[in-house]
Amino acid sequence: QVDVAAMVQLFGYVDVTDTGFIVAVLSIAFNPLFWNVVARWEHKTQALSQVFGSPHAACYCLGAAILVLNGVRSHCFTEAMKSQPKLEGWDCHWTYYSGLAISAVGTLFVVSSFLALGFTGTFLGDYFGILMEEKVTSFPFSILDNPMYWGSTAIYLGWSLMHASPAGLLLTAVVAISYTIAVLYEGPFTEEIYRRKQKGVKSK
């Protein structure tokens, strides 16, 4: 069972009205909203492919924009942690190295996901009509679904522990929630894209 009193005490360290904290929350929420809206718009209109001359060029540009936004998000996350107090009981070597280990595992999931999917597979290429031949089932997809998202969440969790930051832990929860919503939004739509592909292949 969750110790509610401990949770209240932990997040009593967090000033949710702090400007830096609010900016970090908005940045975290904005990123998946941005790439889902843009990708669905592209899937419906092919407007980006027309502007950039090809689906691949458009996908690479969207991917670059996502990477820049993720960099901004990480910066806002870090600045929000720095502006809020540390939890003194966690400001020790044990917590630091635990966080470092969690971040390392998260990085492994993110990097291995990217290598398994490639650039277009990672950055919504299927919305641009760049479909993979078959579902990727190799590591890390053999261990869990959406390893890119949960690896990224683990990196933020580890980063928060390394800084002994209650604000970071709360922001990590926001990251997890935003990714959970993104998965619920993206999953069925992506499955429908591939279902149509399979239906098209069978009808030939």
UniProtKB/TrEMBL annotation:
One GO biological process term is: phosphatidylcholine biosynthetic process
* Functional pathway: Lipid metabolism; Phospholipid metabolism; phosphatidylcholine biosynthesis
The reactions it catalyses are: 1-hexadecanoyl-2-(4Z,7Z,10Z,13Z,16Z,19Z-docosahexaenoyl)-sn-glycero-3-phospho-N-methylethanolamine + S-adenosyl-L-methionine = 1-hexadecanoyl-2-(4Z,7Z,10Z,13Z,16Z,19Z-docosahexaenoyl)-sn-glycero-3-phospho-N,N-dimethylethanolamine + S-adenosyl-L-homocysteine + H(+); 1-hexadecanoyl-2-(4Z,7Z,10Z,13Z,16Z,19Z-docosahexaenoyl)-sn-glycero-3-phospho-N,N-dimethylethanolamine + S-adenosyl-L-methionine = 1-hexadecanoyl-2-(4Z,7Z,10Z,13Z,16Z,19Z-docosahexaenoyl)-sn-glycero-3-phosphocholine + S-adenosyl-L-homocysteine + H(+); 1,2-di-(9Z-octadecenoyl)-sn-glycero-3-phospho-N-methylethanolamine + S-adenosyl-L-methionine = 1,2-di-(9Z-octadecenoyl)-sn-glycero-3-phospho-N,N-dimethylethanolamine + S-adenosyl-L-homocysteine + H(+); 1,2-di-(9Z-octadecenoyl)-sn-glycero-3-phosphoethanolamine + S-adenosyl-L-methionine = 1,2-di-(9Z-octadecenoyl)-sn-glycero-3-phospho-N-methylethanolamine + S-adenosyl-L-homocysteine + H(+)
Tell me which domain of life the UniProt entry assigns to the organism this sequence originates from.
Answer: Eukaryota
Bilayer topology term:
Multi-pass membrane protein
Where does the UniProt annotation locate this protein? Endoplasmic reticulum membrane
Q: Which residues cross the membrane?
A: 20-39, 96-124, 165-185
- Any GO MF annotation of the entry: phosphatidyl-N-methylethanolamine N-methyltransferase activity
Question: Which Pfam families does the record cross-reference, listed alphabetically?
Answer: PEMT
Keyword Lipid metabolism found: yes
Keyword Endoplasmic reticulum annotated:
yes
Assigned keywords, A-Z: Endoplasmic reticulum, Lipid biosynthesis, Lipid metabolism, Membrane, Methyltransferase, Mitochondrion, Phospholipid biosynthesis, Phospholipid metabolism, S-adenosyl-L-methionine, Transferase, Transmembrane, Transmembrane helix
Q: Give the EC number(s) under which this enzyme is classified.
A: 2.1.1.17, 2.1.1.71
**Record GO cellular component, one term:** endoplasmic reticulum membrane
PANTHER family according to UniProt: PHOSPHATIDYLETHANOLAMINE N-METHYLTRANSFERASE (PTHR15458)
HAMAP family, alphabetically?
PLMT
Protein name per the record: Phosphatidylethanolamine N-methyltransferase
